[in-house]
Specification:
By secondary structure, this protein is mainly α. It contains 11 helices and 6 strands.
């Protein structure tokens, strides 16, 4: 008998009157807010403006949610489109099922659109957000605990996860792979923070390090899971994905360091700065107004143009009249 284990919640939903609070969705939302908050601090420290990370996240988060769900539905289509399954369940994101690979890929597309609109480099923004994303994943993984899903093989270790009887699951104690991945993601965040300070990573290399480090852990954690998945050459599909993405991330770090060493000096240009020759905008208007005002004044008398010359002609006329009278 296993005397020590991690208990699972009896339900993943808390009914607050007519409003159901789902633990899975709650963990995702908390992860997003923490990522934006921490990413903003890193962006400002890099020389960016406060609020930019949140503005970009407005695009990145919806794209990421769509991409994460699409990846899950496509790679586990049998859960929704097989005989006896209801395809409408593919839209029930609150019941779990977000593929991190699709979330990051589609989220990057949304971030790219937002960064272009603001005139900032996507790699620099991604570097600032990299450890924040890892922390968000660490928080989001606890949503699997609420849903009693994505656990590993049976075990009687003291930290085993207790799973109750339910649809597509057998009661028992299993490896808490959600916890393993959550702790691994925290380690990834700390690694990226340390490496970024130590080596001044730039041009997307901090983000690539986050991707590579996460894939290294996801590979062995995925191998422990017992939920249904497609296999290729004896390995789960997500294991192959982790291997391929890991190789691409490491290759990017090596090639990028040679082509574009160092870190970006300016990550977010100042939109209010005066651009030579450009007069639109508040700063440009002020400069134009000063130039126009200077042109309308006499450089010597500081009066309106022609005023000094008129005074000189009046004095000359008075002198001529006095000479005639004498």
């Amino acid at each position: 008998m296993n005397l020590a284990f991690i208990p699972s919640p009896s339900t993943g939903v808390i009914e607050l009157g007519p409003i159901p609070l789902r633990g899975y969705a709650f963990c995702i939302i908390i992860g997003v807010f923490v990522a934006v908050w921490f990413g903003n601090k890193r962006w400002v420290a890099r020389g960016g403006k406060a609020g930019t990370v949140a503005d970009v996240a407005v695009w990145a988060v919806p794209f990421g949610l769509v991409g994460g769900r699409l990846y899950h539905v496509v790679t586990d289509y049998q859960l929704y489109f097989s005989d006896g399954e209801n395809w409408v369940d593919a839209f029930k994101i609150w019941e779990g099922g977000l593929g991190i690979w699709g979330a990051v890929a589609f989220g990057a597309v949304g971030a790219w659109i937002a960064c272009r609109r603001r005139g900032i480099p996507l790699p620099a923004w991604a570097d600032a957000l990299a450890p924040a994303l890892a922390i968000a994943q660490a928080i989001g993984r606890w949503g699997n605990w609420f849903n009693q899903e994505l656990y590993g093989k049976p075990t009687d270790l003291p930290w085993a996860l207790e799973i109750s009887e339910g649809p597509n699951r057998v009661a028992g104690t299993y490896h808490p792979t959600f916890l393993y991945e959550s702790l691994w993601c925290i380690g990834v965040a700390l690694l990226v923070i340390w490496a970024d300070r130590r080596f001044k990573l730039g041009h997307g290399r901090a983000f690539a390090l986050y991707v590579a480090a996460y894939c290294a852990g996801r590979g062995w954690i995925e191998y422990m899971r017992v939920d249904e998945a497609h296999h290729i050459l004896g390995l789960r599909l997500n294991v192959w994905t982790a291997i391929i993405v890991f190789v691409l991330a490491v290759a990017y770090i090596v090639v990028s360091a040679k082509i574009r060493p160092g870190r970006e000096e300016i990550v977010e240009p100042d939109r209010d700065a005066v651009v030579p020759g450009k007069t639109d905008g508040p700063a440009g208007q002020d400069a134009s107004e000063e130039a126009d005002t200077a042109g309308k004044k006499d450089p010597l008398t500081k009066d309106e143009p022609g005023k000094g010359a008129t005074a000189e002609r009046t004095e000359a006329a008075e002198a001529a009249e006095a000479a005639e009278k004498s």
